[in-house]
Design brief:
The complex is a heterodimer of chains A (197) and B (445).
Chain A lengths: L1 E3 L1 H14 L4 E11 L2 E10 L8 E4 L4 E4 L1 H7 L2 E8 L2 E7 L8 H18 L4 E9 L2 E8 L7 H16 L5 E4 L23
Parallel strand pairs in A: 1-6, 2-5, 9-10
Antiparallel strand pairs in A: 2-3, 4-5, 6-7, 8-9
Helix pairs in contact in A: 3-4
Chain B lengths: L3 E4 L2 E4 L5 E5 L7 H11 L3 E5 L13 E3 L5 H14 L2 E6 L2 H14 L6 H8 L1 H10 L7 E5 L4 H4 L7 E5 L9 E3 L2 H15 L14 E6 L4 E10 L2 E10 L12 E4 L5 H18 L4 E10 L2 E8 L19 H9 L13 E7 L5 E7 L1 H5 L4 E6 L6 E2 L10 E7 L2 H14 L1 E5 L14 E3 L2
Parallel strand pairs in B: 3-4, 3-6, 4-5
Antiparallel strand pairs in B: 1-2, 7-10, 8-9, 8-10, 11-12, 11-14, 13-16, 14-15, 16-20, 17-19, 17-21, 18-20, 21-22
Helix pairs in contact in B: 1-9, 2-3, 3-4, 4-5, 5-8
Classes of the chains: A alpha/beta (197), B alpha+beta (445).
Chain lengths: 197, 445
């Protein structure tokens, strides 16, 4: 289900050896979804951590563990190791669509087509994290993260647009750590002093 | 008692309320709480702010762009909007939009504080005169033109005194002076602040003068109230246990209920109500600041809006309603779900800015959150931003929220949580001349 290229295998074996620990496996999975598609987890774990739902793949000298949820999104994926002028790194090719749930795909389409081009004018972006039942979980980044008007953007804009375009979605939950925002578009001030004063 | 039904995850009254126009600047701390309150009440919401919103095109009825510095023009925009989408209530979240809200509400025949009362309350000198004319104890006061010679003016002033801009909020530009030299320095500092383009608009009358009033030693309290049909109701009385003695008056801890003796508390509430009547405030929220001095409650300020910053989060009413739900519910004429604040004590700390510089990091937030009684800690200035302390500063470093069985416990929890916070402040653009911004972390208290 997952292909590890010879070059990647060689590098992984080298990294395992550098760990100087016996019985290590490579945990490979989906970490989440971002603006540019899936984000991935690649880390060494004790082989004894293999869970009941994990798929174990013999990659020639080491074992790759893939959890059941990730496995559905990683069928046919490959891990390669590439050298560039900036250094080396693992490159993952994944032919799977970002979402299989039709509602999630519809929400993603609204975000890509309508919402992100609009909030980009404020340096912001919206990422769909998940859709469970009739709730869409999103995160806001860039100028939206920590912005004083983020609730207006969320409730009066994002929520209205998504619910209108995807009737199966009842609620939008913002999972953003707004305190972690480093460049919010609007910064609150005492007395709501207008920036245009 | 309000009856509720559920739709879209919110809890809303049985009769769907009419549309609310919320006036809020893009730099408000208050937008989120009011937007959430409108949603819980099931009220369709239009947000009026001074800049176009990024997603306004997808919800044109949900947004209006208004120039708060030209209220008459903004009222005309609102009137045209209301002809298409009738409004049931107009409310301003902050000082900036409150006069526009009052004028628009009058134009549309909606309940609100009258524009004359709002205008008086927005100008500290007019407010002082109205309160004094009504016989309400207030500090003795003068209004001076900013182009006057401060050393000459100092001869007319009793010391100690407090200098204040006429139109700024949250202790911004408020400085105590104990002698003529301090007076002159403070005068020039306030004038410089009011001369900044981001503080005062060209031609702003309130930026041409300042208020000088006698300094009254004593404990300070804040009253959160709601006026309906001219009848004021007290929603909460907050103690401010940190001494506010100057030279600057940075507010930190607010704890409710007040620990003042019952008679003193009643006097505070009565004086705030008298201030409401003296100014003619009739329909909407009010936030008053009073000082107990020489056995009397002196009314320092009364604003035609609710408490600022994120402080309202500590208030819960009836079956758990927020302050904003109470305010919006009253504006919409909904049945009251009870205006009794919960029995628990509650408090908030507006985290003070220790010194000027650039915020390079914050540590200890999780430890502060873990303190018993602490509900949340919110840092509201991003790492990398400039820190400007009072009297020039206009931002809160953050907020700590606590709840507990007694006010003493709440205050202790707030102080303990604050002790865990470490702010790494590096020298940077926020460091004003003459202010040393030491590198490295600082642990306060």
């Amino acid at each position: 289900m997952v292909t590890i290229t010879e070059k990647a295998s060689e590098k992984i074996r080298e990294l395992i050896a550098a760990e100087k620990r016996e019985g290590l496996a490579l945990r490979f999975g989906i970490g989440g979804r971002g603006l540019n598609g899936f984000t991935y987890v690649l880390r060494f774990v004790p082989l004894s951590e293999r869970g009941a739902g994990d798929t174990a793949i013999d990659a020639g000298g080491f074992t790759v563990l893939v959890d059941a949820e990730s496995a559905t999104h990683l069928a046919g994926a490959s891990v390669d190791y590439v050298e560039t002028a900036q250094g080396g790194g693992f490159k993952i090719e994944n032919p799977n669509p970002l979402w299989t749930d039709p509602r999630a795909r519809a929400v993603q389409e609204v975000i890509d087509r309508d919402i992100n081009p609009a909030v980009a004018s404020h340096g912001g972006f919206v990422t769909l994290l998940d859709v469970r039942d009739d709730v869409a979980y999103i995160a806001l980044g860039g100028g939206c993260q920590g912005c004083g008007m983020v609730d207006v953007t969320l409730k009066q804009g994002i929520e209205v647009r998504i619910r209108e375009a995807v009737p199966g979605i009842r609620e939008i939950v913002d999972s953003t750590d707004h305190a972690g925002g480093s460049n919010p578009y609007y910064r609150p001030s005492k007395g709501g002093q207008s920036p245009l004063a | 008692m309000t009856r509720y039904w559920s739709e879209g995850g919110g809890v809303v009254p049985a009769r769907r309320p009419g549309r609310v126009l919320l006036l809020v600047t893009t730099q408000s701390y208050r937008a989120g709480a009011f937007v959430e309150a409108a949603q819980r009440l099931g009220a369709p919401l239009t947000v009026g702010s001074e800049r176009p919103q990024a997603l306004a095109g997808f919800n044109p009825d949900g947004h209006l762009t208004l120039d708060f510095s030209a209220p008459e023009v903004a009222v005309e925009v609102i009137r045209r909007f209301a002809a298409r989408r009738p409004l049931a209530a107009i409310l301003a979240a902050d000082d900036e939009g409150v006069l526009t809200a009052a004028l628009a509400a009058r134009a549309l025949g909606l309940p609100h504080h009258p524009p004359e009362a709002v205008a008086a309350a927005r100008d500290k000198y007019r407010m002082r005169r109205a309160l004094a004319a009504a016989g309400i104890p207030t500090p003795r006061f003068h209004r001076f033109a900013l182009d006057a010679d401060p050393l000459a003016l100092a001869r007319e002033v009793e010391f100690p005194c407090v200098l204040k801009p006429l139109g700024l909020a949250a202790s911004r530009g408020v400085i105590r002076a104990d002698d003529p030299e301090q007076f002159a320095a403070a005068f020039r500092r306030v004038a410089a602040l009011l001369g900044r383009p981001e503080v005062a608009r060209p031609g702003d009358e309130l930026a041409r003068h300042l208020l000088v009033e006698s300094y009254l030693p004593g404990v300070e309290v804040a009253v959160e109230g709601l006026v309906t049909g001219g009848v004021p109701r007290v929603l909460a009385v907050f103690d401010k246990p940190d001494p506010l003695e100057g030279p600057f008056f940075e507010e930190t801890i607010y704890v409710t209920p007040s620990r003042l003796p019952a008679a003193a508390r009643a006097a505070v509430e009565g004086r705030a109500a008298a201030g409401v009547a003296a100014l003619g405030l009739s329909d909407g929220p009010v936030h008053a600041e009073l000082r107990h001095h020489a056995g009397e409650a002196h009314l320092l300020e009364i604003a035609p809006r609710s408490i600022g910053g994120l402080c309202s989060r500590v208030l819960r009413f009836g079956e758990g309603r927020s302050l904003e739900e109470v305010i919006l519910g009253a504006a919409l004429g909904l049945e009251s779900g009870g205006l009794e604040r919960e029995r628990a004590a509650a408090g908030v700390m507006m985290i003070p800015i220790p010194r000027a510089g650039t915020l390079a990091g914050v540590r200890g937030v999780e430890a502060a959150r873990a303190v018993a009684g602490i509900e949340d800690v919110r840092i509201t200035i991003p790492v990398g931003d400039e820190l400007v302390p009072l009297p020039e500063g206009a931002r809160y470093l953050g907020f700590i929220f606590a709840r507990g069985g007694a006010p003493e416990q709440v205050e202790a929890a707030l102080r303990e949580a604050h002790r865990w916070l470490e702010f790494d402040i590096q020298p940077g653009p926020g460091a004003a001349p003459g202010v040393r911004a030491d590198a490295g972390a600082e642990r306060r208290w």
